[in-house]
Amino acid sequence: MDNRPVVLEVRHVTKRFGGLIAVNDLSFDVHHNEVLGLIGPNGSGKTTMMNLISGALSVSGGDIMMNDLLISDLPPRKRARAGVARTFQLVRMLPSMTALENVMAGAVFGHKKLWGRGLQVHAQRQLERVGMGDVAQRPTSALTYIDQKRVELARALASDPSILLLDEWLAGLNPTELQVGIELITSLRDEGRTIILVEHVMDAIRSLCDRCVVMSSGVKIAEGTPTEVLSDKGVIQAYLGD
Ligand code: ADP
Prior knowledge:
Keywords: ATP-binding, Nucleotide-binding, Transport. This is ABC transporter ATP-binding protein. It is a single chain. The chain is α/β, with parallel strands linked by helices. Helices cover about 35% and strands about 25% of the residues. The protein has a domain at about 1-80 and about 200-240: P-loop containing nucleotide triphosphate hydrolases (Rossmann fold, 3-Layer(aba) Sandwich). The chain has helices spanning about 45-55, 75-80, 100-110, 115-130, 145-155, 175-190, 200-210, 225-230, 235-240, and strands at about 5-15, 20-30, 35-40, 60-65, 70, 85, 165, 195-200, 210-215, 220-225. Helix 6 links the parallel strand 7 (about 165) and strand 8 (about 195-200). The chain is globular, with a radius of gyration of 18 Å.
């Protein structure tokens, strides 16, 4: 039993794409300062679920509540204002803009009431937070992949979100970079952030997640600590069938 307040409630959410049910009557809670792993084999509906939370997609049925506000009817921008921030599976930033400008854009999208110098200082702080303070004036296209990912994280943090959605943020990193990435997410957890992460890297799931929701073919097949779900027969079967 987790006594921390619930930040996000997913209630009986369904998403249909024509005849295909990508997410089927899915329910779960995310508590304050929890790192929840949304895991499962390819095609199980994880990214769709992240898109339903951020508002990139709208639900076919069910409700999503954040801090008691019904957000599943709101457009993405209003959800950002309500405290949802996300990173993408593939880095999606404006490549010709500098790292600082990208982070400033994140703050504006999340409706941080900052302008001019105040906005710049805030964005610079987010870059420093992810160890990227010295690349502020470089175009993001000139940065390495992991550094682009770090700037993307700074951009998501710039709105000071109630919940941070990380969609395979660690994908494509080499083992050394992976370690840096895991430490960075750990430090976000330690400072009290609430995070949902979609992840395939098992080491990362084990070391970062308090709890996992396991999806297969759009439905929840298990929920529990990483140790519990990764030893569950149904979960192992679902992954072997991947
Ligand atoms: P995962 O992230 O677990 O790999 P996805 O959420 O990407 O799974 O996909 C779940 C299912 O929904 C898959 O069968 C996929 O082909 C389908 N799907 C995802 N997005 C769309 C879309 N925009 N239009 C039609 N089908 C989609």
